[in-house]
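Weekly structure sync, notes
Attendees: PL (lead), two postdocs, one rotation student
Agenda item 3: pending single-chain targets
PL asked that the sequence for the first pending target be pasted directly into the notes so everyone works from the same version. It is reproduced below exactly as submitted, 418 residues in total.
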Amino acid sequence: MTSSSRPLSVFLCHSSQDKVFVRDLYQRLQRDGVAPWLDEEDLIPGQDWDREIRRAVRASDLILVCLSKSSVSKAGYLQKEIKFVLDVAAEQPEGSIYLVPARIEEGVQVSDVAEELGRRHWVDLFQEAGYQRLQRALQARARECGASFGTSPAITRPRWASGAGKDAFGQFAEIEVGNVVQRFRWIAPGRFLMGSPTDEPERYNNEVQHEVMLSSGFWLADTACTQSLWQAVTGAKPSYFKGDARNPVENVSWDEVQAFLSELNRRVSGLQARLPSEAEWEYACRAGTTTPFSFGENITPEQVNYDGNYPYAGGEKGRYREKTVAVGSLPANPWGFYEMHGNVWEWCADRFGDYPTAQQVDPTGPQTGASRVLRGGSWIFHGRHARCAYRHGFEPGLRTLYFGFRFAPGHQGPAEPA
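Predicted structure, written out during the meeting:
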């Protein structure tokens, strides 16, 4: 990051067929303190499209040319927009990092698009490590042109929060009810592959993999709801396992959770707490990973509370605790969420049903159905049931000693004033 107050400006050159991916990239660049330019976000109704595109290209510090199989076969994109950015790039000093080809899916031959693009090293944004490489290019270009890169927005407190801050995992906010504190973490918008690939060991057929775009960020509790918070809100102690109020509340039904959230919302003004959607839950659980678990290809009882007598995919047997453990006592995933694998199943808002196969934007599940979704596995289930993609459904009135939940406040983001 430089000391300049002017953020690095980046023009996103793309085809209309790739707008979902590019919109996600736009938001990710914004989170990195970049000033990206995207036609559907920055063009004002009534402006001359061609003139404004040319103006934006010339005003930008860096051009990111997004290439997919569909876009490289689109004559207008190749002959008009890419040709123009290549002409502008030719005016830049030799050796400057100004034009970056970005493959957004595998199989695109950059040299086949244009000879000038083929001479430049490209970045593969369909791979997570690709974005890290792009960040290096952005940092280098920021130094070249005296712009800033990586400036984080100021931390502000949502109106419903009693406190807020930033730590190694990112931005958080907290509420306090009856001397019990619950922390939430902000999850920015993004896209991911929901479900499991067909070659994932021990998968189930109802885990059909499909792309999901979450267009809005959201807050989510960093742990399952504790027995102490449930008691502070309702006065009740429904859990089977006693002795530590930091353990997750269990033995609660989906219907009872709705009553809890209603009372919590009455007590905390503006909170608008709800259960996460199934897509939001898996997005948070995966935390940017694509493996069966957020910890990698396998797990151990030191990471996850499950029945270690039944390890996943040929793993070694391990400890079986035969009970829940205190929330936050096992390692967090890369985004700072604890025990999303194992400990207690977690209720989601959605009804249980078959997945669609097409890309989805902000899915909320089937409109009808008798069961509600549970995710994450539990202390009494096997390793395979703790996978990111594993899903189950039960009647909303059912309660048992391994059903719990975590909840999400309303959509007011971290940039809102206190």
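Discussion points:
- The radius of gyration is 24 Å.
- The longest strand covers residues 170-177.
Action: rotation student to compare against the earlier draft before next sync.
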